[in-house]
Amino acid sequence: QIFNQHNAEAPNLEQAFHRMAQMEPNLDHDVSWLLLPSYWAKMVVAFISFLCFANSYDGDFVFDDSEAIINNKDLRAETPLGDLWYHDFWGSKLSSNTSHKSYRPLTVLTFRINYLFAGGFYPVGFHVINILLHCTISVLMLDVFSILLGGLQFSNKGRRLNLAPKSSLLAALLFAVHPVHTECVAGIVGRADLLCALFFLLSFLGYCKAFRENKEGHTFSVFWVLVSVILGAIAMLCKEQGITILGLNAVFDALVINKINLLELIRKLLYKDKSLENAGLLRKGLLFRITLLMCGGAGILYIRWRIMGTGPPAFTEVDNPASFAESLFVRAINYNYYYSLNAWLLLCPWWLCFDWSMGCIPLIKSVSDWRIIALAALWFCLIGLICQALCSEDSHKRRILTLGLGFLIIPFLPASNLFFRVGFVIAERVIYLPSIGYCILFTYGFSLLSKQAKKKKILAVAVLGILLINVMRCVLRSSQWRSEEQLFRSALSVCPLNAKVHYNVGKNLADKGNQSAAIKYYREAVRLNPKYVHAMNNLGNILKERNELHEAEELLSLAVQIQPDFAAAWMNLGIVQNSLRRFEEAEQSYWTAIKHRKKYPDCYYNLGRLYADLNRHIDALNAWRNATVLKPEHSLAWNNMIILLDNTGNLAQAEAVGREALELIPNDHSLMFSLANVLGKSQKYKESEALFLKAIKANPNAASYHGNLAVLYHRWGNLDLAKKHYEVSLKLDPVAPGTKENYNLLRRKLEQLQKKGS
Predict the structure, then answer these.
(1) What is the pLDDT of residues 614-658, one digit of tens each?
(2) In degrees, to the nearest 5, what angle opens at C-alpha 471 toward C-alphas 469 and 475?
(3) How many CA atoms lie within 13 A of 224 on its CB side?
(4) Is the four-CA dihedral 642, 648, 649, 650 of positive or negative sign?
(5) Spatial separation of the C-alpha atoms in residues 453 and 464, rounded to whole Å
């Protein structure tokens, strides 16, 4: 549908409506910068943005990638596609009280497509898509910046003109090489921000298209306004920030299309000036378009809220300590300090960290804290820019500054803690969109300096130097995101007070088998945050494995005291108590763990081991059966059932359980070995032999496999093969219990047979 506006008093209104005023000052006039044809400008931006992050293409899955991708069942083919619309970003049900309520089904869908095309969890494909997305967004920024810096003007043929090619190229390059974007590009979960930004920009460009002049001379196209709303909704389905584009479209409409002077409008509203009727709001359809945007935004938010279910997510104090402060003053002052740190990351992105929580930024609790200076500096700059944006007599200046502030502030609002509590202190990924505003303000500042400077080339060289430094910083930071070890260690110098950084370094070392070094970092994490239950749990686990049981028990007991519903700590406490032969306490700890986590197969497995030690065989079998029901691929539980039934003489039942297990886990060599032992005792030698050989093929260096196969041949009367496998077993493990004795018995028997034969 197209709306026609009739106004006999203003015959040239439609032409003015479609075009920026010809007499406006040109931002490029004083800028000493490269002037490239549009095609070459896009090629340069694409190449440089690719260069910055190309070395992250073969990185691992790091940090949040594990939960969002590897452990996310929504990526697997067996999960119905429809479930994506009812699950959060991490694969949990949105209706669950433990859900983070991050609703990004379209981002998860792209992960699923990546997984299916790659045939598994191979990170290269995931990284390549992220790099290409950033390159595409950076190229689109050329068109966006040309409108924001040069204005919206069309040729007679309806083609949009680029009135600021040099300025838009500089701004796009600043955006493409900003090091704060590394988390979004090199971290795979950052795809949510990239996809959101892509549709965010397409929504803005679609809205601009609504004002393209057509042959009928119509003022604007409702179709393109609605397309813009739909693209904004898609952006929000990639990440929550996407909804803010509707507000920015309204700001753009008011400032660029309608050229409203905000200060003058406020004055007229305050004094109820009748000239408002002639302000052009109704004539140009601004109120109608804003109504469309508001209705679209309200509808999108309502649907989002209905899908989200219960209410806002529940975060802990360690996630965002300022939001839990009782004093409104302390909350306000720390929120503003966080804003100043975000601004500093845009201005000087040298100190970057994967996580800024858990004591990384201590709370400001009084006005005597020297960090108050950062707040004062932030608001001094903001107030100065706002005053210039409102009060300047230069309409061009007012427009650019207001748009720059709008793109800086509005996309940041969902992360500001103003409307709801967020689950982080600072997150570099949420600055991806606000950096658009920073690039606008930087470029405008550069144009003002160029206008005043006598040696413009020196200024241009300085800006080029900033770009080159940013490129090098991007390359360095991208390499740090390639592995968890580099990423976590890079944070130690930036946030030495962050307990989570030390915890993650410790966990990475523990996963590599370096327990001594891991203990050091876990202890530091607990020292920095004495209530860090996950660090206590992991440290307790390592101490348990090193047989330092009493300290392990102390740590795990403290962890469950701090967080009584911490199921994993209860289970580990039970294991320690079992090792200390305090069986009743261990049993109670296991059942407490199961009480807090109903579906806990590992806990049922350990409970079964406890019952087996107490000769409560039926209870042990029931516990292991529960473990396999909850987790059919739980090999250890299946194996223990087979072995217990075998040891108690229930060979038929052991055989049945073994066959059931192998149907579910057909390639598990330990199950083949256990079932082969049972079949051998049941004198099913041929089938037992086949399973032993299959197990040996899968794991040829297991001495017990060769030793038990030798016993089978020994019983079967195939003495030469028995001798061969006894010798292989003893070669692999010279002190294997029973094997040497059996081998000696076989040798004596063979000698006796030789004597008889001779």
Answers:
(1) 999 999 999 999 999 999 999 999 999 999 999 999 999 999 999
(2) 115
(3) 17
(4) negative
(5) 16
C-alpha to C-alpha distance for 214 and 240, rounded to whole angstroms: 35
Residues 6+ apart with CB under 8 A from 272: none
Looking only at the bridges linking them, the beta strands covering 2-3 and 220-221 are antiparallel
pTM, two decimal places: 0.85
In this structure, the number of other CB atoms found within 10 A of the CB of residue 424 comes to: 17
Reduced to 3 states (helix: H, G, I; strand: E, B; else coil), residue 441 is helix
DSSP 531: T
Residues 327, 330, 331, CA angle at the centre, nearest 5°? 90
Dihedrals phi, psi of 327, to nearest 5 degrees: -80, 130
Q: How far, in Å, are 26, 101, 384, 502, 563 from residue 313 at the CA level?
A: 48, 6, 37, 26, 19
pLDDT of 757 reads: 65
Measured N-to-C along each axis, helices 123-150 and 191-209 cross at an angle, to the nearest 10 degrees, of: 30
Task: Please list, in sequence order, all residues whose beta carbon lies within 8 angstroms of the beta carbon of residue 469, skipping any fewer than 6 positions away.
Answer: none
* pLDDT tens column, 362-414: 999 988 999 999 999 999 999 999 999 888 888 888 899 999 999 999 999 99
446, 423 contact by CB (below 8 A): no
Residue 432 Cα distances to 15, 75, 171, angstroms = 36, 25, 14
For residue 716, what are its two tokens? 């079967």
Contact 233, 300 (CB under 8 A): yes
DSSP string, 603-656: HHHHHHHHHHHTT-HHHHHHHHHHHHHH-TT-HHHHHHHHHHHHHTT-HHHHHH
* Structural tokens at position 585: 């306490």
CA 547, CA 68: separation in Å to the nearest integer? Answer: 35
Rounded Cα gap, residues 48 and 193, in angstroms: 20
Of 537, 315, 508, 352, the closest CA to residue 426 belongs to: 352
- Spatial separation of the C-alpha atoms in residues 709 and 701, rounded to whole Å: 13
In angstroms, the CA 371 to CA 362 distance is 10
